[in-house]
Write a structure and sequence with these properties.
Layout lengths: L5 H9 L3 H15 L6 H20 L7 H15 L1
Helix pairs in contact: 2-3
Length: 81
Amino acid sequence: MLMATVDELLAQALRLSTDDRARLAQELLLSLDERTEDPEAEVAWGAELSRRAQEVLDGTVELVSFEEAKRQMEERARRRR
């Protein structure tokens, strides 16, 4: 059996439904951090990741660049001092 390349897998994944793509993204992210010892926390984080991914896919959140996010965080930190 031939292994699919990352590009081929990505192309297939992008053809999935929104819900299936969100689930796939969640499972892939969870697989990167197998150190989770609290099953309730894992479920909560999974739900949060799914919710946020769905907001991005639905276009219901305003996305900002990394530079803008960094600027906003630095500004908040300055105000707290």
